[in-house]
Amino acid sequence: MSERLEIGQKVTGIYKTGKYIGEITEVKPERYVVRVLAVVKHPQQGDLHQAKSVHVPFFHERRALAYREQTNVPNVYVKPYDGPVPEYKESLKKALEEQKQTLVADGSDWAKQSIEILNRLEEDYFKHN
């Protein structure tokens, strides 16, 4: 049995292949509602059911959850967090860069298509800076 977390508690949560730092705003029987404060890992691009394949009907673009966006996260994917919370935009930049470096090292067609999408998302995320 996992420990029960409380409203206001800082946590990490995994949502659709992305990982975030946030705070719990609501406790439900099988889920927590988490308000996003920072990005740890940017969501993976492409079809989650055919991971790392470009030969799919639709190659999905997945944006990171926005600052203070709230999402339902199953209890098993939420863990307590007690470190400093990085600033959202800086954490997003870092998560994007780390993912792009991993994809460059991969070098597959899937990785190349993912990098193209991440480059477009990056332009959109930071166009006002």
In words, what does this structure look like?
With 129 residues, the protein is an alpha+beta fold. It has one domain (10-125): Kinase associated protein B domain (SH3 type barrels), CATH 2.30.30.430. The chain has helices at residues 88-106, 109-125, and strands at residues 10-15, 18-27, 31-41, 70-74, 78-80. A 5-stranded antiparallel sheet has the order 4-3-2-1-5. Strand 1 (10-15) and strand 2 form a beta hairpin. Helix 1 (88-106) runs antiparallel to helix 2. The chain is globular. The N and C termini lie far apart (45 Å). The model has no long low-confidence stretch (mean pLDDT 91).
Quick recap:
By secondary structure, the protein is an alpha+beta fold. The chain is 28% helix and 27% strand.
Topology:
Elements: E1 10-15, E2 18-27, E3 31-41, E4 70-74, E5 78-80, H1 88-106, H2 109-125
Antiparallel strand pairs: 1-2, 1-5, 2-3, 3-4
Helix pairs in contact: 1-2
- In terms of structural class, how would the helical and strand content be classed? alpha+beta
The average pLDDT value, as a whole number, equals 91
The number of domains: 1
Topology as a string of helices (H) and strands (E) = EEEEEHH
- Helix count from the secondary structure assignment: 2
Low-confidence stretches: none
For the largest beta-sheet, the strand count, sense and barrel status come to: 5 strands, antiparallel
* CATH fold-type name: SH3 type barrels
Strand order within the widest sheet? 4-3-2-1-5
Q: Supply Rg.
A: 16 Å
- Portion in beta strands: 25-35%
Shape assignment: globular
Q: What's the number of extended β-strand segments?
A: 5
What is the CA–CA distance across the termini?
A: 45 Å
Helix content: 25-40%
Name the CATH superfamily classification: Kinase associated protein B domain
Q: Which architecture per CATH? A: Roll
Q: What is the class in the CATH system? A: Mainly Beta
